[in-house]
Structure to design on (396 residues):
């Protein structure tokens, strides 16, 4: 009944419309995940928040997303893709309402927590639905959507804050309209799964690293930690850091920097997806090391062009490092080992995404943002350089 409208279309067109609806919805969820980043500086000023509180607001999103992926990542196999996505959209609308009403750090934390759960549900169900429709095209969309979505969310919010009224509210009004409009689109898409037995058993997280993959996972761990730690820094503290280091009060620059990192990461995944894993890792670790160094130089010299250049190079390394690490370990696992291995890898990644950022928030309250970023970046460069050495030694 729900797909009756689509059923009148030619089969190829139905598939394209369904894929476009799912891709648009996934991209909107990921854009919403980065939308608060340019606002953190305003929240910090309006609510008198210390840097650690800002990073906690950021960190609870990543933890909620991780836990949701681990516990409910296969929920749509049992309940169907559509019901899970519609439930995620409803939760996301509640999160947007909390952002609109936020007058304290507590409400912001609650909004980000709920947003993490909604995004975890949506990402797993929509990602699976895209692959159900077309394995090759779905895999490509799943690779590009996170980077493109986050770039759009950060830059779009920065533009609205810079040139439109209601800086703390307008972006969430726009997102409410988008998410509400996507509910009927998802309702009209055909169901591609559901009815699989074992719902309760699927809620038990399965984290396992096969013995023959452990050495490879250890080799790529430094770059995986470095990649996601850079992402955490940019999405939590970089807009405030730029103001502190350069004196610039432009929200647009902060949005451009975050969008530069994520969009260049997406470009790296798109351009390197057919290269050997070892070459991708060498490119990723080199780009991350060089780019982070240039970014730190720009911060310490108060040179905005230099930190933008560093961000572009680090962003390419960001995408390449993640892709290279994933491509190194996943082909080594048997079919029945991949889910547990992927879960273990994502635990490592998302903890690296939020824990270092929260620690940086603690340090920034004592030493200042510039000193904190310099120490943080030096650790990232050390990890990326270590990974580069390990990859080159393994190649020999």
């Amino acid at each position: 009944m729900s797909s009756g409208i689509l059923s009148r279309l030619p089969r190829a067109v139905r598939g394209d419309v369904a894929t476009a609806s799912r891709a648009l919805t996934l991209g909107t969820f990921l854009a919403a995940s980065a939308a608060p980043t340019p606002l953190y500086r305003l929240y910090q000023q309006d609510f008198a928040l210390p840097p650690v509180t800002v990073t906690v607001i950021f960190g609870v999103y990543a933890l909620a997303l991780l836990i949701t992926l681990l516990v409910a990542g296969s929920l749509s196999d049992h309940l169907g893709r559509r019901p899970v996505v519609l439930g995620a959209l409803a939760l996301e609308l509640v999160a947007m309402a909390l952002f609109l009403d936020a007058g304290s750090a507590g409400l912001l934390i609650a909004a980000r927590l709920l947003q993490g759960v909604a995004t975890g549900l949506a990402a797993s169900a929509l990602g699976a639905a895209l692959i159900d429709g077309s394995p090759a095209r779905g895999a490509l969309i799943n690779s590009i959507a996170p980077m493109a979505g986050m770039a759009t969310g950060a830059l779009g919010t920065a533009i609205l804050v810079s040139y439109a009224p209601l800086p703390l509210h307008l972006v969430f009004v726009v997102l409410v309209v988008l998410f509400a409009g996507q509910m009927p689109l998802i309702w009209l898409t055909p169901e591609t799964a559901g009815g699989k037995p074992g719902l309760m058993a699927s809620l038990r997280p399965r984290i396992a690293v096969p013995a023959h993959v452990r050495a490879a996972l250890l080799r790529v761990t430094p770059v995986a930690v470095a990649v996601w730690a850079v992402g955490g820094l940019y999405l939590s503290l970089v807009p405030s850091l730029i103001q502190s280091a350069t004196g610039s009060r432009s929200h647009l620059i902060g949005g451009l920097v975050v969008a530069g990192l994520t969009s260049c990461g997406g470009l790296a995944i798109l351009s390197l997806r057919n290269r050997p894993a070892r070459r991708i890792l060498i490119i990723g670790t080199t780009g991350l090391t060089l780019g982070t160094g240039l970014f730190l130089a720009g911060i310490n010299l108060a040179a905005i062009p230099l930190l933008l250049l560093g961000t572009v190079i680090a962003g390419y390394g960001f995408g390449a490092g993640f892709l290279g690490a994933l491509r190194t370990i996943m082909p080594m696992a048997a079919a029945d080992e991949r889910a547990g291995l992927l879960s273990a890898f994502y635990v490592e990644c998302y903890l690296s995404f939020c824990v270092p950022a929260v620690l940086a928030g603690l340090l920034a309250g004592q030493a200042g943002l510039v000193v904190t970023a310099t120490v943080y970046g030096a650790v990232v460069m050390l990890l990326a350089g270590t990974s580069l050495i390990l990859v080159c030694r393994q190649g020999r």
